Amino acid sequence: MRLDKYLWAVRLYKTRSLAADACQCGKVSMTSDGRSLKPSHEVKEGERYSLNIDQLHKEIEVLAIPPNRVGAPLVQGFMIDRTPQEEYERIQMARQYAFEKRDRGVGRPTKRERRDIEKFKYE
After folding, report:
1. Where is 8: in which H helix or E strand?
2. Which of 8, 45, 108, 109 is the most buried (most CB within 10 A)?
3. pTM of the prediction?
4. What is the separation, in whole angstroms, between the first and last Cα of the chain?
């Protein structure tokens, strides 16, 4: 099975074209040697992949090849999520602090204020 089809089938990406785009942009790599993979890479059982999905750095191991897209409860039979728990905690903390409160009546932030807010939140 092709890599883009596998990532779509185990519900890591919503569409196959999003999975293919992620592979083309270098967001999917082999964990063992760190090389980026093409969407046409042939998936084999036991391989480990590293994915960048938004800000999450996910690591998965292939258990089996699904015949087609599987339901969410069945995904566990086809892959193991090897992502460290600290990574999920980092994303959870980023979501909690991603919201900023502005005083009533102050109005929208200026372009400079918005850039400062983005710089503070993501760096």
Report:
1. helix 3-9
2. 8
3. 0.76
4. 38
d(CA 79, CA 110): 46
For residue 31, what pLDDT band results from cuts at 50, 70 and 90? confident
> Token digits for 35?
């090389």
What's the confidence (pLDDT) of residue 101? 73
Token look-up 């046409």 returns 40
Q: Domains in the chain, start-ordered, CATH in brackets?
A: 1-83 (3.10.290.10), 84-123 (no CATH)
What burial letters (b/e) apply to 28-62, b meaning 16+ CB within 10 Å?
Answer: bbeeeeeeebebebebeeebebbbeeeeeebebeb
- Looking from the CA of 17 toward its CB, the CA atoms found within 13 Å total 0
DSSP letter string, 67-92: SS---GGGGGGTEEE---HHHHHHHH
